[in-house]
Amino acid sequence: MALGGAALAVGAWSSAGPGRERDLEAFREGNRARGPAADRLLRGVTELGSIWASVGAAAALAAGGHRRAAARGLAAASVTWVAGQGLKRLVGRPRPYDAGLDGMHLRIERPNGTSWPSSHPAVLQSFLTVTSRDLGVGSVAGAALDALATAVGVSRVYVGVHFPSDVAGGILLGKAVAAAFDGSRR
Fold this sequence. Notes:
Elements: H1 2-13, H2 17-31, H3 36-46, H4 51-63, H5 67-91, H6 119-135, H7 139-158, H8 164-184
Helix pairs in contact: 1-8, 3-7, 4-5, 5-6, 5-8, 6-7, 6-8, 7-8
């Protein structure tokens, strides 16, 4: 509950005034060109957060004998995706390329929908959190998986489809859904 509230607070803070200005500054820095190698790398990283990547990872886990973790991870990712799509419709924040920003770079095809929250890091965060808990991965591996979800978020800013606050809201949403799934195990 607190994580969901924090996600909403990030969205509200970044929608106007000083919060919006800081979000725009951070977007401009995160979106600036870093060369063709960074373009290739981050276009690939960004796809790790798609719902289809979670489907593929769940299939691999199930094939490896971890059906329960796969099913729970995919369920968490799906709930996160649906919640994210609902929030996008409710909030209606334009994506960076629709916000009329000078000098922004769009490095992938335009996705459908609006900007807040960013679904890619949200979906990956919930999937990885639930499956890693179910599989009993250690704290170091868990931190590395959190870093992977954060890297997907960074890539969403770099490719030009989200503001940093969209990413923060998405990661908090993913953690909130994962926490609800953790509570459902008890």
